[in-house]
Specification:
By secondary structure, the chain is an alpha+beta fold. The chain is built from six helices and nine strands. It starts with a helix and ends with a helix. InterPro entries: Resolv_RecU (IPR004612), Restrct_endonuc-II-like (IPR011335), tRNA_endonuc-like_dom_sf (IPR011856).
Amino acid sequence: MGYQRRDINRKSNYDGKFLERLIEQGCIYYEHKCLALIEKTPEPFIVTKLGQRGTFSGRFTGRAQPDFKGTLKGGRSIAFEAKFTSKDRIKQDVVTLYQSERLTYHEAMGAVVGVVCMIGRTVAFVPWSTWKEMQSIYGRRYMTEKELKEFQVPTPGYVDFLSDYHNKEKLR
């Protein structure tokens, strides 16, 4: 049983990293088009011991911030979290309390804020105003893939998470 759980965790970790790479490709696309400069936020981590063949030990030095932050053309800020699930729903609490507080603060300062998430084959940018109000909107603290489709974004080799912003400014 332990091996099955480890394999499931490994696949979920791989899928989450894959989503982040697709988002980073979107960031590169936006930068080349002079639409935005958005970067992955490094984890607060220090190396405590170097091992052989590139291995190391380390520890986290702080709480995780939102995964991506940057500036859109025109000067508006953006901050968002990236979340993948292999389940049939994405729970609101996958965003930690600290990340939630930070995203809410960015929103209050006028930034475009949300969560890029993936359920099944659906990738979406859920505005923070919707994410934080799941309970009042859906009557529960999670979204299904069907509900996520309302916020679905194109994925032409990258996550085009700003497609709605540039087309409709829907993310306000």
